[in-house]
Amino acid sequence: MNDPAIGAVCTSRAGRDKGRAFLIVGVLDESHVLISDGETRKLARPKKKKLMHLHIEPQRAGEIAKRLAEGKEILDADVRKALQLFGYNIG
After folding, report:
1. Positions in the chain whose pLDDT score sits under 70
2. Whole-angstrom Cα distance, residue 73 to residue 66?
3. Do residues 46 and 34 lie in contact, with contact meaning Cβ atoms separated by under 8 Å?
């Protein structure tokens, strides 16, 4: 399994959101991350998810990761746009 990094694209392997694409917006510990897709899971309330229930994709939204690291504000629309640029349909 890849190392989870903020801005990485992942897909859910388990749960009611199985098959959906998300961006990692926070790392809690070695087995949990916070994910958001900007639509059903907004940045205001990201979902806590175990890494074993996620498949980390090779793509990474570098601009969003940089803005989160700097503490700048990002919008749900930015997350949706990044996922669409990588070819994930979230709607």
Report:
1. 1-2, 90-91
2. 11
3. yes
